[in-house]
Amino acid sequence: MSVGIVLVSHSAKLAEGLAELAAQMAPDVRIVPAGGLEDGSIGTDYDEVVAATQRADSGDGVVLLYDLGSAQMTAELAVESLADPSAAVVADGPLVEGAIAAAVAAQAGKDRKAVAEAAAAAGVPDDLSLGEPADGGDEIELELRNDVGLHARPAALLVRALSEFDAEVSVRLGEQEADGHSVLALMSLGARQGDRIRVRAGGPQAAAALEKAKELVDGNFGE
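Request: output the structure for the sequence above.
Response:
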C-alpha cells in the first residue's frame, strides 16, 4: 500500500493529463483526477472530490492537491466530510510540480505527512553547496546514454533508488548542482543524452548509493 493522491482542478483534462504524467513516475500509487463539473464544464465538484478521495485511499491515507483558490475550498470541505478526516490532508503547493513530487514520495513509501511536505516544497529552489563532498563522501562521473537523459521517468527512478540509502546525494552538471532526492531539481538540470554528470554522496551508505546510481545510468534506466 502507499499514500494515495487526488488532483483537484477546475479542468477535467488538466487533472486527467497530470494524473497520467505522475503515474509514469509512480506506477504503484493511486493517483485520482477530480477535475471539472459533472456536465464537463469548468469548475470543481464537491461530490466528485469526495468520491475521488475515497477511491484513492488504499489504507495509508490521501494527499489532495489543487489548482486555484476555490478548488482548495472544495478539497478542504471534502476532507472534513470524510468518516475519518485525519486520513487525508490538503497540501499547499504548485499543482503540477507538487503532484510529481508527491507521487515520487508516495512511490518511495513515504507516509502521508512526508508526501504532503514533498508537494508543498515542490518548486522551492534547493540551497546546495558546491563545495567538497561531506566527510567520508565520494564522487563519480557518469555519462548519460539513454535517449531522454535525466528527465521525468529516469529522474524519478533515480530518486526512488537513492531514497533506500542513508546518504546525502547530489548530482552536478557543469556549474549546476541538484539534490539527488528531488525529481524536480534533477529535471531542472536539463541533462541530456551524451552529458556527463557528477554524482557525489556522503553518509553511512554513500558508496552503495553511488553504486546504485552507476547501475541505473549504465543500464540506461531500463530503457
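Strands lie at 4-9, 31-35, 62-66, 88-90, 138-143, 168-173, 176-179, 196-202.
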